[in-house]
Amino acid sequence: MDFGLSSEDKLFVESVKSFAEKVIAPRWVEIDERKWPIEEVAAKLGEAGLLGMTLSSKYGGQEATFLQAALAVEELAYADPSLATPVYVLLETAWPYIVQRHGRDEAKEEVLPEVVAGRAFVGIGSTEPQGGSDVASFQTKAVKEGGLWKLYGEKNMVTGVSTILNLPYGGGVVAITRTGRLEDRHKGITVFLALLKRRGRVTPGFTHRDWDEIGRHGLSTGYLTLDGLPVEDVFMLGELNGGFKIAMEGFNLARTIIGAASIGATRWLLDRGLEWIKQRVVFGKPIASYQSISFKFAELYARLEAARLAVYRAAWVADRFYSGDTAFTIHDVATAGATAKYLSVSLAVEAALEVMKWFGGASYFKETNIARALLGILSYYVGAEGAENILKLIIARNIIGREFV
Ligand SMILES: Cc1cc2nc3c(=O)[nH]c(=O)nc-3n(C[C@H](O)[C@H](O)[C@H](O)COP(=O)(O)OP(=O)(O)OC[C@H]3O[C@@H](n4cnc5c(N)ncnc54)[C@H](O)[C@@H]3O)c2cc1C
To answer: Where is the Acyl-CoA oxidase/dehydrogenase middle domain positioned along the sequence (predicted)?
Structure first.
C-alpha cells in the first residue's frame, strides 16, 4: 500500500493548484456575487483542460483518472469554497463521462468536444417535484411522436440550465424519463441527452425559471418544464428501458467528486480557522491555547484526514472498475462513492459552523466569507446527488443486503 501520489499525479495537482491560485482564488467572491459570469469562468476552465477531464482524447479530453479529477476538484474547491467552480467541473467530470460510456457516436462526436472547450454544459435532469430520492418513481415521459422522442414533465432543481442557454453551443441534461409503465419502476426508465440548446439555437418545447438560492450563487439551479422537448434517437443513452443503471452510474461518480469538493472546502475552512485562532487574543491569550478550541481543531483535522482517504479511495475504486479490473464491481463503486460523500459533506458543514464560532461575531458578516462556504456546502448536505439518508440506504443495502434494507 502506498499513500503517496505518483509523480504524474503530483505534477497534475501542482498545475491545477497553480491555475486555481492565479485565476480562481482571487475572484471567487466575484463568482459568488455573479460579477464574474460562470460561462466566462468555464472558458478559462476549458483552456486549462479541466472540463470533461476524464473523457477520451478523441473528444479533446485528457483521459484523466477519477483520482486526478478528484484531486483537481479538491484544489478548485480550496480556491472557490462557494463551490460554484468545483461543482461546474465535477458535473462535467461525471455526466459527459456517462454520455461517452453509453451514448451513440454521432451524439458524442457533436457534444463532447464542446463540453471540453467550455462551450457546452451537460447537467443532470433527475429530480421531480414529488421528490428526488426515489428515482424509480419518476414520471417525466418520453414518447415517440413522428420519428422523434418528445419529453413531457417537470424536472426540479436542475443545475446549469441558465448556463446552457448562455453558452455558445449550449448543451443539455441527462434526462431520466419514463418509457415504461409507472408500476415497472426502474425497469421502465430511459435516459436521454436532452439538448436544450444545440449549435447556438434554443430547442423548442421547454420553459425554465431559476430558483433564488441561499448560496453557491455562481451556478444557478432551476425548474424545468418539458412540454414536448424533441430528442433524436441518437441522443438516447444505452437501451430503451435500460436507463436506471446508467443514471446510478453517474450519481456514483458525481458523489465521489462531490466528496473531493467538500474536502477542498473543509481544508480552506480549517486553514482560515487556524490563522484566526493563532492570532485572535482574548483574555490575554490566543484562543488556540484554549483546549475547547484546539481539541475541536484536532478533531476536525483528524476527520478531514479520514474523509480525504475515503474520497481518494472511492476515486481509485472507480478507476479500477472502469479500467476493467474484475476485482471490483459497480456495487463497490456505489458504496465507496456514497461513503465519500457521506463522510465529507457532513464534515464540511460541521467545520464551517465551528470555524464561524471561532471567528465570533465577525463571521456573521459577508466580508469574512466563511458563511459563503457554508451556504455552498449546504446544497450537498440537504440533497444534491443524494440526501444523507439515501447515502446511508445505499451503504446499508450494499453491505447488509437488499433483503434486509
Ligand atoms: C443546489 C442544488 C442543486 C441541485 N441540482 C440538481 C441537478 O442538477 N439535477 C437534479 O436532478 N437535481 C438536483 N438537485 C436536487 C437533489 O438531487 C435533490 O434535492 C435530492 O435528490 C433529494 O430530493 P428531494 O430534495 O426532493 O428530497 P426528497 O426525495 O423529498 O427527500 C426528503 C427527505 O426524506 C429523506 N428520505 C427519502 N427517502 C427516504 C428513505 N427511504 N429513508 C429515509 N429517509 C428518506 C431524504 O433523505 C430527505 O432528507 C439539486 C438540489 C440542490 C439543493
So the answer is: 124-227
